[in-house]
Amino acid sequence: MANVLVIDPEKCTSCRLCELACSARNAGAYRPARSRIRVLIRADEAFYFPRVCIQCEEAPCIEECPTDALVRDAATNVVVLKEDRCDGCGVCESACPYGVIWCLDDKAHKCDLCGGDPECVRFCAPDALRYESQDRWPPGDRQAYADRLRGLVQEVKR
Amino acid sequence: MMHAYAGKMLRVDLSSRTIRTEPIDPQQARAYLGGRGLGTRIMYDEVDPKIDALDPANKLILAAGPLTGMSAACGGRFMAITKGALTGAIACSNCGGTFGPELKYAGYDLIVFEGAADEPVMLVIDDDSVELRPAKHLWGQNVHQTEDALHAELGADFHLASIGPAGEKLVRFACIINDKSRAAGRSGVGAVMGSKKLKAVAVRGTGGLTAADPEGFRTACLDSLKKLKEGEISGTGLPAFGTAILVNIINESGIFPTRNFQESQFALAEQISGETIAEQILVRPRACVACPIACGRVTALPNGKFSGRGEGPEYETVWALGADTGVGDLTAVTKANYICNELGIDTITAGATVACAMELLEKGAISEKEIGRTLSFGDAEAMVDMIGKIGRREGFGDVLAEGSARVAAKYGRPELSMGTKKQEFPAYDPRGVFGMGLQYATSNRGGCHVRGYLIAPEILGVPEKFDPHTPDGKAALDIGFQDLTAALDAAGLCLFITFSVGGPEITEMLRTATGFDYDVDEVMRAGERIWNLEKLFNLQAGLSRKDDTLPKRLLTEPMPAGPAKGMTVPLEEMLAEYYRLRGWTDQGQPTQEKLVALGLS
């Protein structure tokens, strides 16, 4: 069974090393504004929540992309961006029910698990992010994470 | 282009309301790193050290380091550098949170504030757009109200550094606060900000930073991260219990100052310990940007006499508002901490000044009539009440807002101020930890634990154990810690990184990030250069050998009880050796030879 990115928001401490690691690897700079994982922080409530693509089974981003730039890798099940086909139109960003695709600088930015070695996991000290076999993430927990992600979409768009 | 650095600084003249951008000079960056280093260089070059700290001619510099906002563990810091309102000495107060990294993402390593505005203003930085805006509507608001108002006005994704009513009213130990609870705490940097009528700085940055050797830097970062995770203190103790894990350790070592340093063990220590905090009031830990430790404590008090929600207390605060005032009620200590954050005052000086007033009352130097209330050691309600009065300069709080040195002098008992260079000591009685005593006496910003944290080797055994009860070897140890700390401050790192990594790891991160071909010697020399430059500033400000000292109590009154019973600090012999090893005269002045060697002549 392929590994998945397991997200355990309760363990997050809001340090955002995941954003720094991700942007360095995928955007060539320490630049949270181009990270493919974003920690929503509501400090007053001590609410910290890493937001990142869960590679959902029925992916609206794939279905709605007008240039077929988003495809599912059959071996890993990961939704991957074919950069040469993407013109940054923003349809995928609107289509994503979880708010975890960002179209910036004429290009979509979404998590592709760094090709099987997610950089954020390497930098996550409290182990809120882990790269593990899918059966290590109980379906109920995964669903709960997805539901919370979905619930936050309106807030993060404000 | 420069790697790791944003490469630019902002110069904001508040008198003429003009803003300019200047490039960072790579040669100066290499020699002074950033933050505390570059900031002190600017202060030394541009500000007459003799001026009054609250004069518009003083400058206030907010500065990040080269490792701020990168993926270096503990690299979330910025510093406020100025002439301190409390001390009259060079001040550099280090602060975590999110402001420093965001400043760099906006494209600036540092901001120099010059002059003073005639009406309250704030600086709003939105990437390339930088402007001064009126802040009259925020004047008088506390820090939390100010942050909430600015987030509503500008957007939730702005990161803020502001002062509360204490900074506006020039409380001499007002701080600058970021993220509601993270303070550039000491020496009165917030009073300087208030004197310039600068209420807040708001920043949003969407840019990025690069490393000169991306793969090498990544490897160096992962190496430090691993060591921090595996370290007993950095990986287990601090994450679980915060800095207040020290309460029981320091109390058992017999160096936990109690009732204004009259005793060194506090019977109620357990009630205000990190363990008790975790058990009773902790909501969740909170990290600064890029920190794997997350020592910050989001806490909440149950409804009762003292209620509320916020961050803290951390160790020094628990001590200052707790043991030093004889208060063993965690809810009172936490409430007073919240008030300090909201009004924007330094918890250490605030608690220590109340403790000093308590002893002045106990000794009959002040009367309850003058104070306007009872103020005995151990009176939790009185302590909390007085902290609020200080922050608002209300009643007797207006007197205490000057800090313990001025208060004790005013009432004819200057020896009862437990500090050096008018700044109060933190939570370690040096009669039982001699290297710390030398560090207190020689610290360029006055009484302080974070210029050289000798508690690590002398008490915790990090990186190796030194006997705390001997003066032998302490001068050299102090100098090494002071220079390394100056360098890592300037780099933008938190001191806590040194619980698990040292000079070699820090050097490797700096080398690969900046592309400057540093070795450990050069980084340590940068620290030594910063230390000497701070010393030059202080000498020109009028400080001298007589200011490198400790209060009489610590030099002549034997420790009353505990493991260090009967001891006093053998300062003179350590100080003479310290000056000699520093390459200074016996009057504590850097020699010409030393200045030439450091490129400071």
Short description:
Chain A is an alpha+beta fold. Chain A has two domains: 1-52 and 113-146, Alpha-Beta Plaits, CATH 3.30.70; 55-110, 2-Layer Sandwich (Alpha-Beta Plaits), CATH 3.30.70.20.
The proportion of residues forming helix of chain B, as a percent range, comes to: 40-55%
The name of the CATH superfamily of the largest domain in chain B reads Aldehyde ferredoxin oxidoreductase, N-terminal domain
* Count of helical regions of chain A: 5
Residue share in helix of chain A: 25-40%
The CATH class designation of the largest domain in chain B is Alpha Beta
Residue windows where pLDDT falls under 50 for at least 5 positions of chain A? none
Q: Tell me the CATH topology of the largest domain in chain B.
A: Aldehyde Ferredoxin Oxidoreductase,  A, domain 1
State the domain count of chain B. Answer: 3
CATH architecture level-2 label of the largest domain in chain A: 2-Layer Sandwich
Oligomer: heterodimer
Query: What is Rg of chain A?
Result: 15 Å
Main sheet of chain B, how many strands, which sense, barrel?
6 strands, mixed
Kindly report the average pLDDT value of chain A.
95
CATH architecture verdict of the largest domain in chain B: 4-Layer Sandwich
Task: Please indicate the percent range of residues of chain A in DSSP E strands (runs of 2 or more).
Answer: 15-25%
* The level-1 CATH class of the largest domain in chain A: Alpha Beta
Q: What Rg of chain B is obtained from the alpha carbons, in whole angstroms?
A: 22 Å
- DSSP summary, beta strand count of chain B: 17
